[in-house]
Amino acid sequence: MANLGFRLINRSRTSNPIFHQRIHQFCSQPPSPQAPPIKAPPPTNYSGSWLTHRFFSYILLPVLPYGLAYPGKVTDVLIATCLVAHGHLGLSVIITDYVEGGMAPGAKLLRVIRKTILGLSIGTLVGLLYLTFADIGIANTIRGIWAVKPKPRE
């Protein structure tokens, strides 16, 4: 019985000339613009940045445990450069993906953000290299932080 009711409703709509006229009017009208068109971003190729980011990630995989197990200046320099490059590229990609899309190309704030990230990366690298050459090194610093110190007896 319910199936019969559906057929009656369906037939009444399809056989109604006013229904067909309204559908024809709706389909033949061009769509009205509701918002200004969004400009497409300039075509860029991010594969080079992605490959460089992965390169530093893959270098860190063996160097970090080896550097912590056998501390030395060479491994500390590798750890410092790879960590800073990995972090800098990651932050640059975040800025490109999430901040740059909402701003006009060449905006002053965007340039300030990029220069700030570059300055922080350079400062971090200088600090880590100073720790490597003028102090005990990155690996020995991490080992010292992780060292278990016995409680003093009272």
TrEMBL record:
<dbReference type="InterPro" id="IPR034804">
    <property type="entry name" value="SQR/QFR_C/D"/>
</dbReference>
<keyword id="KW-0349">Heme</keyword>
<keyword id="KW-0812">Transmembrane</keyword>
<dbReference type="InterPro" id="IPR007992">
    <property type="entry name" value="CybS"/>
</dbReference>
<keyword id="KW-0249">Electron transport</keyword>
<feature type="transmembrane region" description="Helical">
    <location>
        <begin position="51"/>
        <end position="70"/>
    </location>
</feature>
<keyword id="KW-0496">Mitochondrion</keyword>
<dbReference type="GO" id="GO:0048039">
    <property type="term" value="F:ubiquinone binding"/>
</dbReference>
<feature type="binding site">
    <location>
        <position position="98"/>
    </location>
    <ligand>
        <name>a ubiquinone</name>
    </ligand>
</feature>
<dbReference type="Pfam" id="PF05328">
    <property type="entry name" value="CybS"/>
</dbReference>
<keyword id="KW-0816">Tricarboxylic acid cycle</keyword>
<dbReference type="GO" id="GO:0005743">
    <property type="term" value="C:mitochondrial inner membrane"/>
</dbReference>
<dbReference type="GO" id="GO:0006099">
    <property type="term" value="P:tricarboxylic acid cycle"/>
</dbReference>
<keyword id="KW-0408">Iron</keyword>
<feature type="transmembrane region" description="Helical">
    <location>
        <begin position="77"/>
        <end position="96"/>
    </location>
</feature>
<dbReference type="GO" id="GO:0006121">
    <property type="term" value="P:mitochondrial electron transport, succinate to ubiquinone"/>
</dbReference>
<keyword id="KW-0472">Membrane</keyword>
<dbReference type="GO" id="GO:0046872">
    <property type="term" value="F:metal ion binding"/>
</dbReference>
<dbReference type="GO" id="GO:0020037">
    <property type="term" value="F:heme binding"/>
</dbReference>
<feature type="transmembrane region" description="Helical">
    <location>
        <begin position="116"/>
        <end position="133"/>
    </location>
</feature>
<protein>
    <recommendedName>
        <fullName>Succinate dehydrogenase [ubiquinone] cytochrome b small subunit</fullName>
    </recommendedName>
</protein>
<comment type="similarity">
    <text>Belongs to the CybS family.</text>
</comment>
<comment type="function">
    <text>Membrane-anchoring subunit of succinate dehydrogenase (SDH) that is involved in complex II of the mitochondrial electron transport chain and is responsible for transferring electrons from succinate to ubiquinone (coenzyme Q).</text>
</comment>
<keyword id="KW-0999">Mitochondrion inner membrane</keyword>
<keyword id="KW-0479">Metal-binding</keyword>
<keyword id="KW-1133">Transmembrane helix</keyword>
<feature type="binding site" description="axial binding residue">
    <location>
        <position position="86"/>
    </location>
    <ligand>
        <name>heme b</name>
    </ligand>
</feature>
<keyword id="KW-0809">Transit peptide</keyword>
<keyword id="KW-0813">Transport</keyword>
